[in-house]
Amino acid sequence: MLAGIELGGTKVQVLRARGTTVCDRETIATTTPRETLSRVVAVLERWHAQAPIAAIGIGSFGPIRLDRRAPDFGVMLPTPKPGWAGADIFGTLTAPFDCPAMIDTDVNGAALAELRWGAGARGEAPSDSLCYITIGTGVGGGFAFNGHTVHGAMHPEIGHIRVPRAPGDGFAGCCPFHGDCIEGLVSGPALARRFGMPGHEIDPADPRWDDVASDIAHLVATILLGTSARQVLIGGGVGMGRADLLEQVRRKVVALLGGYLPHVDQAGVGRIVTTPLLGDQAGPLGALALAMDALAGESVS
Fold first, then answer.
1. Is 112 domain-assigned?
2. In sequence order, which residues have a C-beta less than 8 Å from that of residue 16 and are 6 or more positions away?
């Protein structure tokens, strides 16, 4: 039995599975660290008493310390989520269990699941590299290359990249750290502030969507040029909720690259810039992928 935990900013999904076959799933609201993590541990302890858990995988919102050599490994770093900075995610969730465990960001986990079982695995030539972007309450990005997630000094934080602004777009952004980074421009809260209403109420014909598409396209072009990822998957409530927006982004990506990447043309961009094949299950399955790697003895860093 494997346990997977997808710790999100609004809810936690806790899974028990044999391989990728999910046997049980429980959803817990994300409140305070003490309340939330203790409820997750209670679920795991109940399952562990029924059948021993062989490994645990944790995909968490961030930023979070992933360097096992660091004294604050598995601890939440400064975050806009009130009360969560300094929370010991890995230690709290794994201390009661004598089994291997692995932690990564939720978007890195989702990227890994898509690489192994989703968009990266379909077609005649499976992908060896992809980026998974989620656009929702925030903007996060994970990378899976050659079967592994990507880390360095930290984990990728593409949500806080600044992009060139569309001419005439005077929206100041809403990121508390950087103002008009990509998260401050296109996340759900940013759209609500930019348009003056929640995203699902915005008229698809509103011309300001063109500025949003431009911002996202600049991010995608930066990723394609900077990492050589074969695919960029755009998920999350905003990312998967507007097919017409995705088409705008694709056209703008091709125009921005100007033919410099010959494989990114109008004929092929639909296969390169696309939605996650696993949909909203990429994150939970990513946590299970991390549990599998923990069982196989792989390191997080």
1. no
2. 1, 2, 3, 22, 23, 24, 25, 47, 53
